[in-house]
């Protein structure tokens, strides 16, 4: 009779699941505590089971999710991923993802992060908040775009910079035009404050959400 052990020896394709038996405890664990999702020690191979999904993997439909929020400048759409807030777009904004209007990103108004974001936006427009305190997911951008978006976060409430100054801050002083393009593709309007970037002479320049909104945001912050 062929034993399970002999069958395993003949099985050439294995997988090792990265699940940690005590990952929910959020504490360091030793190598002897590693287990795969079948309950076997991590250092022992397990035959591949067709279409098996690790218990720690979230269903694809769980993230991202969206919610709509009313603001004095019109409705905005918020998007949350597993990592954090991944988007804030005005209606009609350039580069607004078409997925917002389809079933791929379902509405979930009671999502804790989206509720927190709506509350902080309300405080911002009421003049009660100068800085947002939310986990952000910038992974949708290229490495260059992410460097620009991170630099935008350092422009304080009530301050502004030019595209050239922003390019210098990320170590690309000759890339002002590329910086401008990355600013325009910012996925987190208001929260990643691309409205605080002005032309070299202080003029209002392009804003994906519209110049009227950019002017209103700067006036709210006491810049224009």
What does this structure look like?
There is one protein chain. The protein is 25% helix and 11% strand. By secondary structure, the chain is an alpha+beta fold. It folds into two domains: 4-47, no CATH class; 63-224, Winged helix-like DNA-binding domain superfamily/Winged helix DNA-binding domain (Arc Repressor Mutant, subunit A). The chain has a three-stranded antiparallel beta sheet with strand order 3-4-5, covered by helices on one side. It has a two-stranded antiparallel sheet with strand order 1-2.
Write the layout of secondary structure elements.
Blueprint: H1 4-10, E1 14-15, E2 46-47, E3 65-69, E4 76-80, E5 85-90, H2 112-125, H3 143-152, E6 161-162, H4 163-169, H5 176-184, E7 197-198, H6 211-220
Parallel strand pairs: 6-7
Antiparallel strand pairs: 1-2, 3-4, 4-5
Helix pairs in contact: 4-5
Summarize the structure.
The chain has 224 residues and is an alpha+beta fold.
Query: How many β-strand stretches?
Result: 7
What gyration radius follows from the Cα positions, in whole Å?
23 Å
* N-end to C-end Cα span: 84 Å
The CATH homologous superfamily of the largest domain is called Winged helix-like DNA-binding domain superfamily/Winged helix DNA-binding domain
H/E order of the elements? Answer: HEEEEEHHEHHEH
Q: Any idea of the CATH topology of the largest domain?
A: Arc Repressor Mutant, subunit A
Count of separate structural domains: 2
Note the quaternary state here: single chain
For the biggest sheet, the summary is: 3 strands, antiparallel
- In the CATH hierarchy, the architecture of the largest domain is Orthogonal Bundle
Low-pLDDT residue spans: 1-61
The percent range for helix content is 25-40%
Strand order of the largest sheet: 3-4-5
* Proportion of beta-strand residues: 5-15%
């Amino acid at each position: 009779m062929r034993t399970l052990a002999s069958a395993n020896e003949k099985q050439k394709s294995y997988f090792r699941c990265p699940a940690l038996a005590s990952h929910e405890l959020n504490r360091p664990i030793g190598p002897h505590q590693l287990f795969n999702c079948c309950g076997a020690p991590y250092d022992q191979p397990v035959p591949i089971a067709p279409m098996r999904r690790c218990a720690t993997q979230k269903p694809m439909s769980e993230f991202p999710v969206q919610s709509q929020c009313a603001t004095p400048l019109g409705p905005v759409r918020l998007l949350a991923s597993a990592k954090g807030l991944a988007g804030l777009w005005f209606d009609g904004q350039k580069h607004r993802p078409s997925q917002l209007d389809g079933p791929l990103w379902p509405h979930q108004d009671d999502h804790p992060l989206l509720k927190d974001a709506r509350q902080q936006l309300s405080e911002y427009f009421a003049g009660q908040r100068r800085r947002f305190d939310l986990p952000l997911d910038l992974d949708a951008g290229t490495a260059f775009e992410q460097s620009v978006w991170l630099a935008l976060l350092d422009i304080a409430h009530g301050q502004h910079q030019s595209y050239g100054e922003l390019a210098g801050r990320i170590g690309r002083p000759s890339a002002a035009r590329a910086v401008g393009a990355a600013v325009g593709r910012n996925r987190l309007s208001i929260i990643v404050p691309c409205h605080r970037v002005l032309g070299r002479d202080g003029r209002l320049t392009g804003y994906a959400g519209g110049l009227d909104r950019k002017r209103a945001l700067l006036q709210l912050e006491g810049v224009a």
